[in-house]
Amino acid sequence: MPAPIKTAILGTGIALNHLHWPLLRSLPDMFEVTTIMERKMAGVAKALCGDGVKVVATLDEVINSDVEVIVVATSDGSHYEIIKKIFNAGKQHVFSEKPLTYHSPQSEELEALAKAKGKILGVFQCRRWDGDYLTIKKLKEENKLGAITNYEVFYDFYRPADVAVEGAAPPEGVVHWKDDPSQNGGGIYAVGTHTIDQVYCLFGIPDKILGRVWSVRGNGVQDSFDAYFMYPPQPGTHIPLFVRATTNLMSPLEPQPKFMIRATKGGYVKHYEDDQWFALDRGEVNSDTYGTELKERWGTATLVQPDGSFKNEIIPTERGDYRQVYREMAEAVWANDPSKNTVQVSSTIQVTRMIEQALKSSQEGRWMVKGKDY
């Protein structure tokens, strides 16, 4: 195995603490985090990562160092300019938090720039390795439920208060970027990039798209959304496929719903969020149970029997593993081969286009139609 890849992480917010730092530390044969960029130099990086990591205040310091991969975990709207600057310098590969950008043409530009510079551009679509999503993917591949006619995925919370700031608090009178409509693209980018990405991976590009975005907390950020996708009938049925991806930040339910699927031979219902985020917080990333789910949280399939009756069957949740997205990034960097990444930039661009059409639909109050609008 080649030497561990010297890596820098940009940003000291939630993504550093809960995701990138614990995941990268769990793969010491692949990555060595040597540098953290903390613009405010408020001591957040040192407190989390210790004295063995160099903390710098500027992107130039990172680019001019000996790091090989730069993980971009800054505010979502900043990704485009930062990644463009890194690639134009021509030294480092980039691994970006999702969304890669808020605009598909910008993502296309970054994809082309990475190719021109001979560098790897990876995107952190870690929820392709959610255990519940992998379970649904398996149910679909095995045709256990028959042809899917209705698919709903939820990513709901109950968060009536302002966002909890992690990292250095903004100066007095300065609004945190997640509470600023001019900087925050809203829930459809924050979490829709995960759920709509899963929709795209399962079903591809839809024939029609309808979107609705709104603010439930009244600060102007469109923090909640409904996105509807219409597809042709799947093999084995004449019924068109109707897909819904939704997030509501004022959902007073316990447990929160996660998936509801109706198909020609049965259905599937699942509650609870994938546990990996919380397991990373608990320091369990290298434990034997990481990525597994408690039996009492498994979903239920209702299967239609030959006599027309129903039979419920508990479906074990597949084991998830967010580490895989980083394992593949390491292999891609070592081989200088972007095909090693399951998450291709081209697929994330398609998801951004779906989001763009959902937002346009919300503005215009109509269905967006393939071949006409996109």
UniProtKB/TrEMBL annotation:
Keyword check for DNA repair: no
InterPro entries attached to this UniProt entry: Gfo/Idh/MocA-like_OxRdtase_C, Gfo/Idh/MocA-like_OxRdtase_N, Gfo/Idh/MocA_oxidoreduct, NAD(P)-bd_dom_sf
Residue ranges annotated for the Gfo/Idh/MocA-like oxidoreductase C-terminal domain, each copy included: 138-368
Keyword Oxidoreductase among record annotations: yes
Stretches assigned to the Gfo/Idh/MocA-like oxidoreductase N-terminal domain: 5-123
Signal peptide span: none
Keywords of the record: Oxidoreductase
Organism superkingdom: Eukaryota
Record-stated family: Belongs to the Gfo/Idh/MocA family.
Name recorded for this polypeptide: NAD binding Rossmann fold oxidoreductase
Organism: Sporothrix stenoceras
